[in-house]
Amino acid sequence: MISRFIRWIAAGILVVASSLACASDAAAWVLKASAPGMVTVSGQLAEAGLQRGLPRGLPNIGDLRLRLPDGSDIPASAIARSAGPGQDVWLALCLDHSGSMSSAFRDLQDGLAAAVRGALSSPDARLRIQTVAFASEVRRVGGFSGNPEELAVLVAALPGETARDGRTRLYDAIAAALADLRSAPAAATRRLLVVSDGKDEGSTAVPDDIARDAAALAVPLDAIAYGALAPDASAPLRALAQASHGQFVLARNPAELTLAMQDLLGWPAPAQVDVVFRYAPAQGQTLAGSATLVHAPAGRAPAEYPVRLDSPISAPMEPGSAGFAPEAVAAALAAAALAVIGCLVLWKGRGKRDVDTSGTAEPTEPPDTAAAASGDASGRRRRNTVVAGSFAPPDVGRPSAYLLCTDGQLQGQRLPIEQALVRLGAGPANELVLGGDEHVSREHASIRHDAGNLYLQDLHSANGTYLNDQRLGGSAMTLLPGDRIRLGRTTLLVQAADTRQAATGQPQRAGRQPTLVRTREDSQR
Fold this sequence. Notes:
Elements: H1 2-21, E1 29-35, E2 38-44, E3 64-67, E4 73-81, E5 89-96, H2 105-120, E6 127-134, E7 138-145, H3 148-156, H4 170-181, E8 189-196, H5 207-217, E9 221-225, H6 230-233, H7 235-243, E10 248-250, H8 254-265, E11 272-278, E12 281-295, E13 303-316, H9 326-356, H10 369-374, E14 401-407, E15 414-416, E16 421-425, E17 432-433, E18 445-450, E19 453-458, E20 465-467, E21 470-471, E22 477-478, E23 484-487, E24 490-496, H11 499-504, E25 515-516, H12 520-523
Parallel strand pairs: 1-13, 5-6, 5-8, 8-9, 9-10, 16-17
Antiparallel strand pairs: 1-2, 2-11, 3-4, 3-12, 4-11, 6-7, 12-13, 14-15, 14-24, 16-18, 18-19, 19-22, 20-21, 20-23, 22-25, 23-24
């Protein structure tokens, strides 16, 4: 009981320390372009700061803001991946083959061999892996290599340790792997993956030192907890992953272990991205010095990245400043002109109808209702304009909505949306795991709650995500009760949290088409 209490105290200390490690993750960001009321900055976000459930390598645009030299914060308007060559990734792999892992080590070897072959099978793979095995001793198994067969042979030849001297040097192995990553090229991305049940006994290294060294090298520590002791012994390992902004997965069976290793070995290098910020500029005022890019994903401590301003940028207009932007004046004049033209057309049409009433009007054919509804004489349906529904903020026990599975292995189940981001896919790290469907990708789609709306987004899945039988593109779509989502062989019906709506399962309006979520950049074009 005392040892478990100590583990949880150490885990809490490491989670608090994660906010201090954020500053060390900062990479150099530069001013790429500027114009009155617009700034574009370019750089790299720490890999672990990227949220799963979003397109790989790109952060959520709502999590980014730019703090200007005068202290004002500007929200991001657009984000895109920068063009350029891929990056080499050097990964140190720590494998636990101690006595407590003896019953699970064969699963680990088989799953790792498949994951390594998959990660290195692509001709353009730029991944280099070194294995550090640990039990009562720590030893390196080969050097950094990109040969999948060589790595598979080395791991397969690694024996499980049967002698038990009460020592499992988990922290010493992680410290050794971090030391090896120091030799990686400066331009390479460095990563560390640990597969263990989380038990440590006899190490000279301590978690605080490991967290500090990982932050200094900007190395995220990904961890997969597996084995009989993992549910109770892996809390410190989870805390280390969180402190370094890495990923943590508790695998409960061989299939989840293999998927987790495939997922983490295939996680991409941090993307070089361009972020655009738009704002109302103050006339004739500029700012110089340095700015700060703030990345604040949900559930994580904000990370700050210094931005070099090599040239002055326009200052933002102060809130409540007098004056009108030229764009606003032009829009107001255009609206007034259209209103005048509309009144003239209506007045002329009324006069014509008054003249026609003196004669005998010929009967006219009733309009084609289908064409009129779509606004197209050919009968082709156009996208309707839909006002998104209002969904309450999700919370445990108080879902925003339900997903009723009408087809697939989960048929008949009602799945609550109880958090702001719900990821759907075959991988074990998803909130909604659709295993057993070969047509569903590991990271297939996501449903996000934001400002009273639910948004569905495809995550570059192999077979696509369909909303009301229409395949989604790269943009998110709003959801309403009655919408049908299809992923592979699984169909999900969106139901309101209100019990009456959930019971009927009827859409709010018939013939609704998916609504495109427009970005701020689109609205200003």
